[in-house]
Amino acid sequence: MKAIVIEQYGGKETLKEKDVETPTINEDQVLVEIHATSINPIDWKVREGYLKDMLPFEFPLILGWDAAGVIVQKGKNVTTFDVGDRVFTRPATTNQGTYAEFVPVEENLLAKMPEEMSFEEAASIPLAGLTAWQCLVDFGKIKENDKVLIHAGAGGVGNFAIQIAKSFGAHVATTASELNKEFLQSLGADEIIDYKHADFSTILHDFDIVLDSIGGEVQSKSYQVLKEDGKLVSIVQPPNEEEAKNHKVHAGFVWLEPDGEQLQKLAELYTAGQLKPIVGETFDFNEQSLQDAHALSETHHARGKIVIKIK
């Protein structure tokens, strides 16, 4: 099968097109023929070697951890999915990623795509959508009328977080540039703080949850907007326990756990019209396009998800 692999850590030029063996599956897996995948910051962070201590992969390494496609083979223990099913998934974190024509996936990590969902939309959801869900629902225990601050609302995780929070009936504030104001209003954001011209920590008060995707000074300032016993959840750096204790809030760090059941809940929100994946730019499946897609992701200014069309 065709795949884009890296055989060493380094810049985007290490992404090379190769012909590799199609993966085999075990009794608990299916083989998904991938129609689309998407780019996430973890892809180029792994490529650069920033995460090699946390994720000690063997080379050659196929990056990518979002997939939408069709099941072409299933193991004998798989009971809830069949060959021909349209599925999307955040596969397990292995060196057999989704910059490829096929990927093996455990049954419990799969979700069925709604009929009206495109493969490009489906591929944009898993990693970012599940991260937002686990921050707000699992850690934040979000409920109706909660006040939620989502930093960088126009980003991959941020735009899903806004929509998930609104589906629970929360009041949502977000930080972004003025350029993204209309876009974020279309997602349901109630308050948009232009971080270039205003300090969110002096404007917002008595919030229940903050989702931090920036870290550093922004994380520290975020404590000031939370009410006592509020929750700060970060996806970039573990919060300082002493700082959280001083502000009398609960703080934690979320590292995504792949989960097919939660992905199916996101599919239900899509069907109900409460979740719209924002597909930004799409690229073809070749060496140069993947290098260009990584370069775009590394600018931190891509709106919505960067999607790769494979089939």
Per CATH, what is the topology of the largest domain?
Quinone Oxidoreductase, Chain A, domain 1
Structural class: alpha/beta
Mean pLDDT: 96
Count of extended strands = 16
Protein name: NADP-dependent oxidoreductase
InterPro entries: ADH-like_N (IPR013154), ER (IPR020843), GroES-like_sf (IPR011032), NAD(P)-bd_dom_sf (IPR036291), Quin_OxRdtase/zeta-crystal_CS (IPR002364), YIM1/Zinc_Alcohol_DH_Fams (IPR050700)
Organism: Pseudalkalibacillus berkeleyi
Keywords: Oxidoreductase
Walk me through what this model shows.
The chain has 311 residues and is of the alpha/beta class. It has two domains: 2-125 and 277-309, Quinone Oxidoreductase, Chain A, domain 1, CATH 3.90.180; 128-253, Rossmann fold (3-Layer(aba) Sandwich), CATH 3.40.50.720. The chain has ten helices and 16 strands. Strands 3, 5, 6, 7, 8, 15 and 16 form a seven-stranded mixed beta sheet that branches. The chain has a six-stranded parallel beta sheet with strand order 11-10-9-12-13-14, sandwiched between helices. The chain has a three-stranded antiparallel beta sheet with strand order 2-1-4, with no helix packed on it. α3 packs across α4. The longest helix has 14 residues, at 126-139. The chain is globular and about 55 Å long. The model has no long low-confidence stretch (mean pLDDT 96).
